[in-house]
Design brief:
The protein has 3 domains: 261 residues, Alpha-Beta Complex (2-enoyl-CoA Hydratase, Chain A, domain 1); 189 residues, 3-Layer(aba) Sandwich (Rossmann fold); 146 residues, N-(1-d-carboxylethyl)-l-norvaline Dehydrogenase, domain 2, CATH 1.10.1040.50. It is globular and about 85 Å long. The chain has 26 helices and 17 strands. The protein is of the alpha/beta class.
Length: 659
């Protein structure tokens, strides 16, 4: 079956795109569209054309199978130019998503209509690119330049309603209609415009921009600062700016040059690697043919910050959730934390009032473990202590149905030992969420020595159902992300004692593209967490291993970070911005003297080389030990867990480690 077909209704032609699953712009689609324009222009009985996509979406972008390969003619810009030059008006009927090249095709059409659930956007910056088929040229000739800059530089799709308000759509069919009703409505719209003069193509229109040079500088500088080293958002904004200042032909050439330069650059290569790496994390050979158990009712044991975040994530994904705490006061506090998260989502319009009320109705609480009796999965999020966790798992074993999956959210503890607390340890696994759990996308799925395939499959399905990325890990101290964190934290401790400072190391990490430095992150999380781990491991520490006591001394002084107002930095009341503290500098120098270290200066490059070196060394050990499945999984753990800049690809990508 051809990807492009033509259906005739009186004087109207419907060009169908049928290239599942997302109607990507493969060579066959491009060729078919080019031929359809030629065919219909030569047909004197046709007065208008509707571009309609079968399946669940409009054209959702390029064909990822063609990434990295030479593009075969016809090229997409030529196809769009030909649609725009058609002697018949083309109407793009949009449902699902019109993204990237799909939106560029829609902009080449003379009209655009959509159902209310449709989304439109240019996500190319997420692959280190900009629109390359006229998107930055046509868009600011249709909508306000500032809106055009925002759409192409942020890479986030906009709703049909927003697109209509911006002028991107000619009509939105309201109230909401099903996708299969769209064609009929689009035909009614097309009948109304068939006898009108064909609107001028966007490439022949002037730009709508009236921005001054100073206004453009402000916009570009703001995007540069926000992008933290990623160049594609800045280049996207510059492309729109140049489009507004050039005629269309010059702007098309300029856009194409930018696109090719970015496509061949290191950042785009890294981002395309990340694109595929993120999709690879769920491909686990062991469970590829194993069906997960149902996941209708979920439980959370513990209503602290982490437990409340996990519970909110369950509710936000449409599940029923049961929270259990040790007494009424702690339960009420936990439920209030969940409600605060939902209230914040409502305030930010992530959810509507009806959905908010539905989620509240889906949340129940109890102080007894037997409230989990109908749960399909229970996630434990109590205090990080082996004895406590073993005790609660013994209780969960007695109070849950035998087939229910029991998961622990431990960050460091041996899950094999926790699983041994239940009669059937094959139903136990680790689900290590990152804080805040309702926001962070990474969840490490920890496979014990005896976990069943179905339990593991259910764990992966559960994480995916929350809209998060599961990454498989074996059992070890810290699993993947935290084990690597421990390794490069030690390296930073060494550099502190050897002559660097918290400020210099944090600045180097921010300049590299990380959202915050190691010591800023420690103050945010709480220094007592790492201190507890170090004390727990003290008895088994290699006596010949270098050990730096600086962080311990801060903790001994009650300096646990932002929550106590002092840590590596000082925090004024109500502020999250740290101020340097001479006392910390004095402690660092004292510890260096006690260790017999002669301090020296460090360069920014040397700091980052040592940090990345520590990351890759530990990551290689994780692969050698079979803890991590793939090098790309490690990169995704660092990107999603600690904000490692996506545009750098991850420490394993930087080191050139094969997957």
């Amino acid at each position: 079956m051809s990807a492009i077909s033509i259906e005739y209704h009186d004087k109207m032609a419907i060009v169908h795109v049928d290239n599942p699953p997302v109607n990507a712009l493969s060579q066959e689609v491009r060729q078919g569209l080019m031929e359809a324009v030629e065919t219909l222009d030569d047909n004197s009985e046709i007065s208008a054309v509707i571009l309609f996509c079968k399946g669940r979406t409009f054209i959702a972008g390029a064909d990822i199978r063609e990434f990295g390969k030479p593009i075969v003619a016809p090229h997409l810009p030529d196809v769009i130019d030909r649609i725009e030059a058609s002697t018949k008006p083309w109407v793009a009927a949009i449902h699902g998503t019109a993204l990237g090249g799909g939106l560029e095709v829609a902009l080449g059409c003379h009209y655009r209509v959509a159902i209310t659930s449709a989304k439109l956007g240019f996500p190319e910056v997420n692959l280190g690119l900009i629109p390359g088929a006229g998107g930055t040229v046509r868009l600011p000739r249709l909508i306000d330049a500032q809106d055009a800059v925002r759409i192409v530089s942020e890479g986030k799709p906009v709703s049909a309603s927003s697109a209509s308000q911006l002028g991107l759509l000619d009509h939105v069919f309201e109230p909401e209609i099903a996708a299969d009703e769209l064609l009929e409505k689009a035909m009614e719209f097309t009948v109304g415009i068939a006898d009108e003069a064909i609107p001028a193509g966007l490439s022949s229109r002037p730009s709508l921009s009236q921005l001054s040079a100073e206004a453009w500088d402000t916009i570009i500088n703001g995007i540069t600062k926000k992008s933290r080293g990623q160049i594609s958002p800045v280049e996207a904004a510059l492309a729109v700016q140049q489009s507004c200042q050039m005629d269309a032909d010059e702007a098309f050439k300029s856009e194409r040059q930018r696109f090719i330069k970015l496509r061949d650059g290191e950042q785009s290569k890294a981002l395309r690697y990340v694109f595929f790496a993120q999709r690879q994390t769920t491909k686990i050979k062991r469970i590829e043919n194993v069906s997960p158990l149902p996941l209708n009712i979920c439980g959370v044991l513990g209503g602290g910050t982490m437990g409340a975040g996990i519970c909110a994530a369950m509710l936000l994904s449409g599940k029923k959730a049961v929270m259990v705490e040790r007494d009424k006061d702690t339960l009420d506090a936990g439920l209030n934390r969940v409600n605060s998260i939902l209230q914040a989502s409502l305030k930010r319009k992530i959810i509507g009032e009806d959905k908010f009320n539905h989620m509240q109705a889906n949340l129940t609480g109890s102080i007894k473990h037997d409230a989990f009796c109908d749960c399909d999965i229970v996630v434990e999020a109590v205090f990080e202590d082996m004895g406590v966790k073993q005790q609660v798992f013994t209780s969960l074993d007695a109070e849950t149905k035998p087939e229910a999956v029991l998961a622990t959210n431990t960050s460091y503890l041996n899950i094999n030992e926790i699983a041994a607390s239940v009669k059937d340890p094959s139903r136990v696994l680790g689900l290590h969420f990152f804080s805040p759990a309702h926001i962070m996308k990474l969840v490490e799925v920890i496979s014990t020595d005896v976990v069943s395939d179905q339990t593991l499959s259910t764990g992966f399905a559960f994480v995916k159902s929350l809209g998060k990325t599961p990454i498989l890990s074996g059992v070890c101290e810290g699993f993947i992300a935290n084990r690597i964190l421990t390794a490069y934290r030690k390296e930073c401790d060494y550099m502190l004692e050897d002559g660097s400072s918290p400020q210099q190391i944090d600045a180097a990490m921010r300049d590299f593209g990380l959202p915050m430095g190691l010591f800023e992150m420690a103050d945010l999380a709480g220094l007592d967490i790492g201190w507890a781990t170090r004390k727990r491991l003290a008895a088994t520490r290699d006596p010949d291993e270098r050990y730096v006591r600086i962080a311990d001394r801060l903790c001994e002084l009650g300096r646990f970070g932002q929550k106590t107002g002092k840590g590596w930095y000082i925090y004024e009341v109500g502020s999250r911005t740290g101020i340097s503290d001479p006392l910390v500098d004095r402690i660092i120098k004292e510890e260096a003297a006690l260790s017999g270290v002669t301090r020296r200066e460090f360069t920014t490059d040397e700091i980052m080389d040592r940090i990345i070196g520590a990351m890759t060394k530990e990551a290689t050990s994780l692969l050698d030990e079979g803890i991590a499945e793939r090098a790309s999984d490690i990169d995704m753990a660092m990107i999603l867990g600690f904000g490692f800049p996506r545009w750098r690809g991850g420490p394993m990508f930087i080191s050139g480690t094969p997957n």
